[in-house]
Design goal:
The protein is of the alpha+beta class. Helices cover 32% and strands 38% of the residues. The protein has a seven-stranded antiparallel beta sheet with strand order 4-3-2-1-7-6-5. The chain has a seven-stranded antiparallel beta sheet with strand order 11-10-9-8-14-13-12. The radius of gyration is 23 Å and the shape is globular.
């Protein structure tokens, strides 16, 4: 925990003198002999207005005041801690190769997200990191088109999603050039890895050949996909009209996951690919029940920051355990 900050905290119509500490996972507030924790997973946004810090959570608004000269320092340290947790929820394992502050814009589910953020370029992704729950990781392997005009760069993905970044400072063009270069390399690596998977599929299926054969006989198209281009684990899925079955080939043979959806099969397949790439080795984020997800703040943040994870989870229709009745249950689902 960071050093204690003397302040006044107001929430639910109550105002109290308090001590606040910024931790790795939450803000701890001590007031009137009690301790309160504001988990970063519950914070939607925070704003500094006239030396009052307003934190907007899923349960309501919390106001910090009377921080005096520590106000801006408190805000900056909170942003650093919140940002670190946001990056962890995006499953970023390395330091960015380049990072700047700049403008961003994207539209998601009909809502426009516009503002200033830290813009971080990684070898496989471009990340938008504002001090709210709108942080997004843009996987460069799915980029279909990049346009750079003046101080703005527009990235369009294979799903049609568009992200704009701009005004990154004196080396804006260098940043844009690196983004385009990394994107081309990521697209090539992703394509090559999938071609290799298809060429070696029979051997890599190992003890899953029987399940794969069942999938091939179902009323739908079978696809395969990777979580990362340089890792051996993969998945295969049968996607039919409004229904899909998903099998992970990750060294364990636990269950087949079922989905129902209203979109066309191609849209579902693309969202599946994005969701699997987004989680990497954290596969349980895809299938963890809601009641268990609520107990894992980092995973809740991950789902909130990926529309494809949210979509895939919203389509969940249960699972089929690998027992003697597995094939019968799978076939019954696709009827």
């Amino acid at each position: 925990m960071d050093a204690a900050y003397s302040c006044e905290v107001a929430f639910s119509g109550i105002s109290k003198s308090a001590k606040a500490r910024i931790g790795a996972d939450s803000i701890m507030v001590e007031a009137a002999g009690r301790k309160y924790f504001i988990d970063y997973a519950d914070i939607d946004d925070f704003r500094l207005l006239n030396y009052h810090l307003f934190i907007y959570t899923k349960k309501g608004e919390i106001e910090f005041s009377k921080l005096g000269r520590d106000t801006e320092n408190f805000f900056e340290k909170l942003w650093l801690a919140y940002d670190a947790k946001s990056r962890a929820s995006l499953f970023l394992k390395t330091e960015p190769l380049v990072e700047r502050e700049g403008d961003y814009a994207y539209t998601e589910d009909g809502v426009n997200h516009i503002g200033k953020a830290k813009i971080a370029l990684y070898e496989d992704s471009l990340c938008i990191l504002p001090h709210d729950s709108g942080a997004r990781r843009i996987p460069l392997c799915f980029v279909k088109d990049i346009n750079s005009v003046g101080y703005n760069q527009l990235l369009r993905l294979d799903t049609g999603e568009e992200y704009r970044i701009g005004r990154l400072g004196y080396d804006t063009k260098v940043f844009f050039d690196k983004t385009e270069s990394f994107s081309k390399a990521a697209v090539a690596a992703w394509k090559s890895a999938h071609e290799k998977l298809e060429a070696e599929l029979s051997d890599r299926l190992a003890d899953r050949k029987e399940e794969y054969g069942v999938f091939k006989s179902l009323p739908g198209s079978v696809c395969t996909g990777l979580f990362a281009p340089y890792e051996p684990e993969f998945y295969f899925a049968c996607i039919g009209k409004g229904k899909a079955a998903l099998e992970f080939v990750i060294g364990e043979n636990a269950a087949t996951y079922l989905y129902t959806f209203d979109t066309d099969p191609e849209t579902f397949q693309k969202s599946l690919a994005h969701a699997c790439e987004a989680v990497g080795r954290n596969r349980e984020v895809i299938y963890l029940p809601d009641e268990e997800l609520s107990e894992k703040p980092l995973y809740r943040m991950a789902v909130e920051r990926s529309r494809h994870l949210r979509f895939l989870r919203s389509c969940s229709a249960g699972r089929v355990i690998h027992t003697a009745g597995w094939e019968k249950n799978i076939r019954a689902f696709f009827v």
